[in-house]
Design the sequence.
């Protein structure tokens, strides 16, 4: 337990304000130049060594779908671009990949539907504004796909950045416990944000919630499980495929089951007891997302009281975060424990079965994090939004991101650095607009790489 730090909120704000001497707010708007000869496609190909070769064409297919899909799959590229530029001097636990599709709704252990960040593969200690920049950039790229002109994109970016600024300043005034327990549930969203949004905007938030799509355990059982005396996961390539023997990286179904059998040591004792009442009955490879395609990821079906009492666990291998790679900083903890720690810090209601485990494969220690796969999870369908709803959704995400950052305990310093004027909003908007153009250029470079034969989509 930390003792002796009784610094007032005003003093911490002043400390943050002094940080502008090291990096002005305006400098955050500058997109740094890349080194001569920087090869985006080459950097992306460099990530292939720890991915399954048969799935790489699918990775490229998904990244080539749109500029937004490319952004989602190129977290390392943006992290390296951010590392070259000016950064605020205070760091917090960041998501590391806070694009608009990494927010959503899921069920808390108390069975409430909550809105929060949902993906923490890249979480690490880093400059708070890295998350803000990635969120805002993803929103204006989405806005462009919806037909928003550049002026509307600029207003969108400023609105979302302002929401983050206002929220973090509000959290700086709240007690530590109030910040820690601040939750955004679907039922309390209107009440909880009453001081932040107008009546019209709150009605628009309800429209946004109607555009969320997801899966719960009951529907997952219906769609993905062959029922019977011996329930099995439905073979549904590339979503689910069963393992035959040992795969290209040396893993087998028995290895996956070994992780499930041993990782419970990282769970609280009550969750250990609950997990012990279930028996694994099937294992399949699970392909998800855009940036994660090709990484080792599995689904395990478990059965409890009977064959209708089932749920899924996801077991996913963790790698070094793009944040540590971009900042050229050595990892200080096991990759999977880093993911779990980051999620527990940033999320108000972490998964009840969230934990991690390690196994030895061919003399190499490999780490995996575990979580429940289907639990009323829902994410936004961007194509069903318009400009107004996209702005509302972006503001909800910004509030949620500010709350996640505030849980690290540095909200007053961040608030002092950001200040009360619109200078921070303007800088984030300037950066996001510049990065929209860079991302479009990189997206075209990936298309060119297909034509040149550097990458294969398998088509």
Sequence:
């Amino acid at each position: 337990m930390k003792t002796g730090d009784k610094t007032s909120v005003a003093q911490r704000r002043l400390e943050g304000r002094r940080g502008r001497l090291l990096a002005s707010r305006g400098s955050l708007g500058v997109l740094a130049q890349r080194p001569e000869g920087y090869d985006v496609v080459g950097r992306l190909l460099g990530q292939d060594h720890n991915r399954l070769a048969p799935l790489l064409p699918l990775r490229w297919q998904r990244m080539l779908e749109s500029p937004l899909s490319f952004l989602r799959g190129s977290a390392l590229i943006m992290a390296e671009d951010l590392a070259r530029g000016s950064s605020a001097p205070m760091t917090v636990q960041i998501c590391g990949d806070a694009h608009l599709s990494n927010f959503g709704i899921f069920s808390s252990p108390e069975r409430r539907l909550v809105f929060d960040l949902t993906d923490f593969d890249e979480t690490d200690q880093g400059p708070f504004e890295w998350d803000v920049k990635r969120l805002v950039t993803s929103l204006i790229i989405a806005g462009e796909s919806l037909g928003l002109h550049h002026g509307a994109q600029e207003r969108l970016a400023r609105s979302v950045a302002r929401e983050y600024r206002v929220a973090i300043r509000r959290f700086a005034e709240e007690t530590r416990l109030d910040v820690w327990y601040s939750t955004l549930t679907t039922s309390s969203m209107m009440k909880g944000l009453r001081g932040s949004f107008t009546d019209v905007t709150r009605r628009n938030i309800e429209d946004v919630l109607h555009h969320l799509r997801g899966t719960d355990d009951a529907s997952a059982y219906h769609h993905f499980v062959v029922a019977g005396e011996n329930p099995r996961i439905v073979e549904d390539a590339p979503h689910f495929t069963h393992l035959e023997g040992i795969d290209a990286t040396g893993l087998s179904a028995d290895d996956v089951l070994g992780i499930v059998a041993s990782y419970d040591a990282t769970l609280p004792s009550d969750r250990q007891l609950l997990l012990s009442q279930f028996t694994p009955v099937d294992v399949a490879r699970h392909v998800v997302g855009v940036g994660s395609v090709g990484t080792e990821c599995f689904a395990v079906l478990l059965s409890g009281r009977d064959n209708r009492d089932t749920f899924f666990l996801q077991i996913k291998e963790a790698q070094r975060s793009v944040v540590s790679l971009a900042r050229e900083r050595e990892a200080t903890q096991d990759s999977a424990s880093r993911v779990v720690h980051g999620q527990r810090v940033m999320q108000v209601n972490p998964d009840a079965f969230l934990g991690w485990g390690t196994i030895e494969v061919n003399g190499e220690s490999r780490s995996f994090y575990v979580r429940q796969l289907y639990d009323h999870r829902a994410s936004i369908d961007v194509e069903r939004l318009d400009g107004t709803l996209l702005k509302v959704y972006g503001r909800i995400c910004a509030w949620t991101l500010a709350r996640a950052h505030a849980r690290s305990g540095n909200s007053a310093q961040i608030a002092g650095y950001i200040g009360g004027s619109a200078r921070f909003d303007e800088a984030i908007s300037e950066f996001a607009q510049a990065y929209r153009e860079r991302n479009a250029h990189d997206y075209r470079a990936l298309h060119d790489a297909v034509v040149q034969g550097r990458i294969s989509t398998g088509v």
In short: The two ends are 57 Å apart (CA to CA). The chain has a mean pLDDT of 87. Residues 9-212+382-452 form one domain.
